[in-house]
Amino acid sequence: xxxxxxxxxxxxNALLTDPASRTQSRGGLLIAWGVIAEIGAAVTPASAGxxxxxxxxxxxxxxxxxxxxxxxxxxxxxxxxxxxxTASQAAAAGGVTTIVCxxxxxxxxxxxxxxxxxxxxxxxxxxxxxxxMAALTKGLKGQEMTEIGLLSEAGAxxxxxxxxxxxxxxxxxxxxxxxxxxxxxxxxHTQDSDLAGEGVMNEGEFASRLGLPGIPVEAxxxxxxxxxxxxxxxxxxYHAATVTCRASLDILRRARxxxxxxxxxxxxxxxxLNENDVAGFRTFCKVSPPLRHEDxxxxxxxxxxxxxxxxxxxxxxxxxxxxxxxxxxxxxDGAIGLETMLAAGLRLVHDGSLDLVTxxxxxxxxxxxxxxxxxxxxxxxxxADIIVFDPDVPFVLDAARLKSRCRNSPFDGARLxxxxxxxxxxxxTVHQI
Length: 433
What we know:
By secondary structure, the protein is an alpha/beta fold. It has two domains: 3-62 and 384-391 and 413-432, Urease, subunit C, domain 1 (Roll); 65-371, Metal-dependent hydrolases (TIM Barrel). The protein has 14 helices and 18 strands. The strands form four sheets. Strands 1, 2, 3, 4, 5, 16, 17 and 18 form an eight-stranded mixed beta sheet that branches. A four-stranded parallel beta sheet has the order 6-7-8-9. 56% of the residues are buried. Residues 59-245 form the Dihydroorotase catalytic domain. It is an enzyme of class 3 (hydrolase). Its EC number is 3.5.2.3. Keywords: Hydrolase, Pyrimidine biosynthesis, Zinc. This is Dihydroorotase.
């Protein structure tokens, strides 16, 4: 680290927004040696020493960096879609200071050597913090569980089969039991592949009008209900990867009322878009699980407000032209989202659905708590993973200007508000405009 990196940084004249304590106040924040040294109204340019770099934030929001619990990064094996370096650049531009990548690589992250490769590669090439999730089952095939203990020792932060659900309840029970013994977090995608069948969008009237096969919400609800029973049976730490419908929210409420300690997230796409956005057969809006009815979207937003849904993820999944510029039914699932997650989420703030603190809590504090990471808070001694942004700056998204290697954004051409002016990781500025 250079002397410049060691130089203290004071973010003055800021709207300090701490989702951990649910507070907002005017003041300043002093960063030194990679942590928050001082914070509050008394932190001003006048209080700074001669060696402190002072940045006048002009009343912009200063908040903890976002923590994205679910992103496909491609490397190793699919570098044409995304690398750890390009994913980190997109993340920094969008205010994401920590990425947790899924094991859907080639080879999958199901061996300690692959975990080690990803973490070393991230340290060498990425400008934000990157953690790896390891596979729950070998080869992501849902048949034989991985060596959870060895993978944990290698640095795996959590365990998931990505966008694949483990259909064999006996395999999942054994995996949960084994994970419990290592206090490992199980993150599971809940979609019954048999019930989903050949469906490509949400089942209902709109799918019928488009002539596309649908996926019923029951495909999600049935598997989530099964998982709740397995969690009660095993006592495992469990997180539902992407809940998308009212039926799933009812299941989560009942489970928690019964004393089952589970957490859940949804994707930024499912709280800001609905099934109508696939009109015109827009393949950039083809995701898994599919975009749901507007009533489900509204229910998800309310569930975030109520704390039933803990976190919002980008579900960043880069797909190249060959896999997306296809007839809707044949195109690959997935949308990029690291760079647009905050701006898209601010739609909910601007329309009055959520307040800013609640949104940031779902994007930073709760992911940090679930993953047992030290970020997600503005307090003395906390890691200096900080973002500065103006929530009101309007822009039209030009996907060609995004830093991700692929361009499959569902918000291409959309009018958004909210621009990150500075992203700080460990006290060092990694993005600035």
